[in-house]
Design goal:
Layout lengths: L12 H25 L5 E4 L14 H12 L1 H4 L8 H4 L10 E4 L5 E4 L6 H15 L4 H11 L14
Antiparallel strand pairs: 1-3, 2-3
């Protein structure tokens, strides 16, 4: 399972400040890109949540795995907020929305490629599924994600508390 992580080390408070500013600038740039691409998100319908969309065909295997896991963990990811800014820029309500736009009554799924363009979305989904598989409850996972992303990231999606 791919879990994207950022590791930074600092030798002094001034280098910590520099690292923090660089991280903030990178996050702001990513959020700007979200605003620019939201209206251009690709949506694709497939027969079920077991059939991945064609827009993932040329994407890394790890990304395809995260999408497949997201589809199989709707209840989990609907209870986990996303911290990339998509709540405001794309109207998302939770991390699940970064991957799937709609689950139709007939079993068909409308996928969203938003997650393919966002490391924060991918990281949150991957970590959440991994934590669930290791035995953590949804409430524990939510607390962990909220703690990890509480500062230095965008405002979370309006995901109701558990």
């Amino acid at each position: 399972m791919l879990i994207v992580s950022i590791v930074s080390t600092a030798c002094s408070s001034s280098s910590e400040e520099t690292a923090s500013k660089e991280k903030t600038n990178a996050i702001e740039k990513e959020h700007q890109q979200h605003s620019e691409h939201v209206s251009g998100d690709i949506r694709e319908e497939t027969a079920s949540n077991e059939v991945l969309p064609k827009f993932l065909k040329d994407k890394p295997e790890e990304m395809q795995t995260i999408y497949a896991n997201a589809a199989q963990n709707k209840e989990l990811l609907e209870n986990i907020p996303c911290y990339c800014g998509c709540g405001e820029s794309a109207g998302h309500k939770n991390n699940y929305d970064c991957f799937i736009l709609e689950n139709k009554k007939d079993g068909k799924v409308v996928w969203d490629d938003h997650g393919t363009k966002c490391g924060v979305c991918l990281e949150i989904a991957a970590q959440s599924v991994s934590d669930l598989e290791s035995g953590k409850s949804i409430k524990q996972i939510r607390q962990s994600i909220d703690e990890k992303y509480k500062s230095g990231y965008a405002k979370p999606t309006p995901t109701p508390e558990i």
